[in-house]
Specification:
alpha+beta; Trna Endonuclease, Chain: A, domain 1; seven-stranded mixed beta sheet; about 20% helix
Length: about 240
């Protein structure tokens, strides 16, 4: 799929120790003996990444309208840094499409972020050869069970609605695709987390049954770069 390595530069500015997450958007982190507030930009629960005492990588991002000057980038789980900032999904994939787009999507001519579909938006609209269009929705995966990557890590009605939109587009004869970004480098396959969200899981397999396409890309993070490792398969259904 890609002939040479690809990486996205994103350097952390400090390493601290996670203490607690008082709400969805905020974490308290110990940094050099002081307790600081850090913004958490991930809609999931991050149950394996944000455990008390876990090392975390943070980035200094001050701003006049911000409560905190720091962003959480990653936490340690299973001996690896697990990237956990969904705000970078767009710049990461947009850079990848700009630099390697035709390798990933043969016949790609152009792409548009955040296309409107009905009353909502998806992540990308791809313009392909012969006038074909493809709508793409991205999901980031930070949860693992052994070598199996799982999504979601909490029930997600929003994620289920995205799958239903893709399913309807495909039924109308329009190409549609789910693009999963797996940030667990130890995993060898992906599966929807049926034990966490059976409704999402049902919608996932219904989408595949009607022909919605699937790409699963695995990334590693070392505190300096997000590296594209390989494509993963779906786990076998037991």
């Amino acid at each position: 799929m890609w002939k040479t390595p690809w990486k996205y530069p994103l350097a952390a500015d400090a390493c601290g120790r996670f203490l607690e997450r008082p709400n969805r958007f905020l974490a308290r982190v110990e940094l050099e003996g002081k307790i600081i507030e850090v913004h958490v930009h991930d809609p999931g629960r991050l149950p394996q990444v944000l455990l008390p005492g876990t090392p975390v990588l943070i980035k200094y991002r001050p701003g006049p309208k911000r409560r905190t000057s720091w962003d959480l980038l990653a936490g340690k789980a299973a001996g690896h840094w697990v990237f956990a900032h969904s705000g970078y999904h767009r710049p990461l994939t947009q850079t990848l499409l700009s630099e390697r787009g035709p390798d990933i999507f043969p016949g790609l001519k152009a792409f548009k972020p955040e296309p409107q579909v009905n009353k909502g938006r998806l992540d990308y609209l791809l313009e392909l050869e012969k006038g074909d269009r493809m709508f793409v929705e991205i999901k980031g995966c930070t949860l693992a069970e052994g070598q199996k990557a799982l999504f979601p890590d909490a029930p997600t009605s929003r994620g289920r609605k995205h799958l239903q939109v893709l399913t309807e587009l495909k039924k109308q004869g329009i190409k549609a695709l789910v693009w999963l970004l797996v940030f667990r480098p130890e995993c060898t396959c992906f599966a929807p987390a049926g034990g966490i969200d059976p409704l999402f899981t049902r919608a996932f397999y219904e989408a595949l049954e009607v022909g919605v396409e699937l790409k699963i890309f695995q990334f590693s993070y070392d505190g300096r770069f997000l590296r594209l490792e390989k494509a993963l398969p779906l786990c076998e259904v037991s």
